[in-house]
Design brief:
- The protein is globular, with a radius of gyration of 25 Å.
- Helix 9 packs antiparallel against helix 10 and helix 14 runs parallel beside helix 16.
- Strands 1-3-2-4-5 form a five-stranded antiparallel sheet.
- The N terminus is likely disordered.
- It has a domain of about 120 residues.
- It is built from 22 helices and seven strands.
- It is α+β, with helices and mostly antiparallel strands and about 575 residues long.
- Belongs to the LanC-like protein family.
Length: about 575
């Protein structure tokens, strides 16, 4: 049972009729009564009489929150024979027979931070096109398969969660509750399969779910395109204002998104746009920065540039970018540099391994990679020797704290060492790396989750950077390397933790959001081939598409690991689940 289509194009091909989308954006304050929202919607709509007479499909207006903006979306089906005439009336140049889409975007008006916090949950309102006051009574499950009713009568699952959430005290909400309760996790596999199967038979989900993803990707790519244009038009800063537009939080991450979008849709124009972005990132790069990791440092920018140049057939510039990565080796071997993935030596090792995967050939390649591996092993062993008694064979410090998570801790470093397993001796693998993996398992809470550090932290964090989701990737890879069943079992147990507690209140980002957690399910699907994990991926993806529930506004709203670019990347990547991979990991 495949709920995510493999190889389905992002943009559906045009058929016998042309489906058009008219987008109207408003900045309505969410706390206003529905009637006020409707009045504002009426004023924003201007549908020509010619268009009204030629519509041949049932009409809806979708009022929903996308990236903090209320969206009123009018969907119509227009016959090909009348498309050209309607295009002239509506001033839509893109409305042509067979194109599949036409659209108009009005000004994108994001809500203020204080308004975001007051978002109500009635954002999914379905109305008749020409009678906005007549709200349809049918819940969303009549349109989408993935809004399944379980123990909640006519209410959707996330409405049930909302009601439960209201019963909690403010202290619980703000200090202890970091995720929404997943009602589906309370069901046995057999019961869940029964519910899902019944819904599948009734609602034929594949096309609807794909359509839903496409809508979301399209809307967010439009927003990101605007941000890209602003970035490209900015004048070059003064020397003391140069920066590192990293993969993690900068525009290089959006270049990586564009590259993925271009590869999946065979859109060369997007590759060229990615080239413009990454070249601007390089032109304003702070040459004095000692940050060398893939996610937050200079090597990630250069590796992404090399990939883009290779895709465009510019081998000469691709080689120049590879040389720039290699020139960072002295910085990567500096004793003051931490060994962690996010902004340390393991992150630089990831860049070298990615270059090798891309076809980098050099007589000194293996020697350079081994140098970095040796430095990481040496520092991890040295840190452990200071412990009395010695508990692990490897341990790493960041800000004088022994972290355990993927971004800043032990599991992230182990992930990179396992990716580079051919550069380790059998002794190093079996007597250094393997015992460290075993020790990490002994630190788990009774819930099965992994602590964020060795400092007796409370069992709060279930996100890629800290906790079960990141560690799951490490143990799935460890099973592939060692073929030890306990690592497979550990990955499955960690997956169950993510399924139960991974609907985060922080938002939808890759680092500490729902889309990052959904990659944990894809890793298990790739390891086992079981549709159960693909289904879990689809459910978490649907949460991002449907609920609009994000309590915290990210610092970098458009970035890859914190903002809308990340969830957009995940939605594009997961449409080919066999090949999907968490970027930078």
């Amino acid at each position: 049972m495949m709920l995510l289509s493999v190889g389905v194009p992002l943009i559906p091909a045009g058929g016998s009729s042309c489906i058009g989308y008219l987008y109207y954006w408003t900045s309505a304050v969410p706390s206003q009564p529905t009637t006020q929202l409707e009045r504002r919607a009426r004023r924003s709509l201007s549908v020509p009489e010619t268009l009204k007479r030629n519509i041949s499909f049932y009409h809806y207006i979708f009022l929903r929150v996308i990236a903090g903006v209320y969206t009123i979306r009018v969907r119509v089906r227009v016959p090909d024979s009348k498309a050209s005439r309607l295009a002239a009336v509506c001033n839509h140049d893109n409305l042509k027979p067979g194109t599949g889409y036409f659209m108009r975007y009005c000004k994108y008006l994001p809500l203020k931070t204080e308004e975001r916090r007051r978002l109500n949950y009635n954002h999914h309102i379905h109305c008749s096109l020409f009678n906005l006051s007549s709200i349809l009574k049918y819940p969303d499950e009549t349109l989408y398969y993935d809004c399944i009713t379980i123990k909640t009568g006519k209410n959707l699952i996330y409405n049930k969660l909302m009601m439960e959430d209201k019963k909690k005290t403010n202290e619980q909400k703000h200090e202890h509750i970091r995720n929404y309760k997943n009602e589906l996790s309370l069901l046995s596999d057999e019961k869940a399969n029964e519910v899902v199967g019944r819904s599948l038979k009734i609602l034929k989900p594949s096309n609807v779910f794909q359509f839903k993803i496409n809508e979301y990707v399209e809307a967010h790519m439009y927003v990101i395109d605007d941000e890209v244009q602003r970035f490209l038009k900015k004048p070059k800063p003064y020397d003391d204002e140069l920066t590192v537009e990293s993969i993690y939080s900068g525009m290089a991450g959006i270049a990586l998104l564009y590259k993925l979008f271009a590869n999946r849709t065979h859109n060369r124009d997007k590759t060229i746009e990615a080239k413009l972005i990454i070249e601007k990132c390089i032109s304003i790069l702070n040459k004095n920065s000692d940050s060398v990791s893939y996610l937050t440092g200079k090597s990630g920018i250069f590796v992404t540039a090399a990939e883009i140049y290779r895709d465009l057939g510019d081998i000469e510039n691709a080689k120049k970018m590879i040389k720039k990565v290699l020139d960072l080796l002295p910085l990567a071997l500096n004793k003051k540099l931490p060994d962690i993935l996010l902004y340390g030596r393991a992150g630089y090792l990831y860049s070298l391994l990615l270059l090798k995967k891309l076809g980098w050939e050099d007589p000194d390649r293996d020697r350079l990679i081994r140098k970095v591996v040796s430095a990481i092993l040496h520092n991890g062993i040295k840190t452990c020797e200071k412990d009395k008694p010695k508990k692990s064979t490897l341990m790493y410090k960041c800000h004088n704290k022994k972290y355990l998570g993927a971004a800043q801790g032990l599991s992230g470093v182990l992930q990179c060492l396992l990716l580079a397993n051919t550069y380790l001796t059998k002794h190093e693998l079996n007597n250094i790396v393997k015992p460290a993996l075993d020790y990490l398992l002994t630190l788990r809470y009774t819930s099965g989750n992994l602590p964020s550090s060795m400092c007796n932290d409370p069992d709060h964090l279930v996100q890629w950077c800290q906790g079960a989701p990141g560690a799951l990737h490490t143990y799935a890879l460890a099973y592939n390397v060692f073929l030890d069943r306990k690592y497979f079992d550990a990955a499955v147990e960690l997956n169950d933790v993510v399924w139960e507690r991974g609907l985060l209140t922080k938002g939808y980002g890759l680092c500490h959001g729902v889309s990052g957690n959904s990659y944990a399910f894809l890793t298990l699907f790739q390891l086992t081939g079981k549709a159960k994990y693909l289904y879990r991926t689809a459910r978490f993806v649907d949460w991002c598409l449907t609920t609009g529930r994000q309590r915290k506004v990210p610092d970098n709203l458009y970035s890859l690991f914190e903002g809308v670019a990340g969830v957009t990347y995940a939605l594009i990547d997961m449409q080919c689940p066999v090949a999907a991979n968490m970027p930078g990991f």
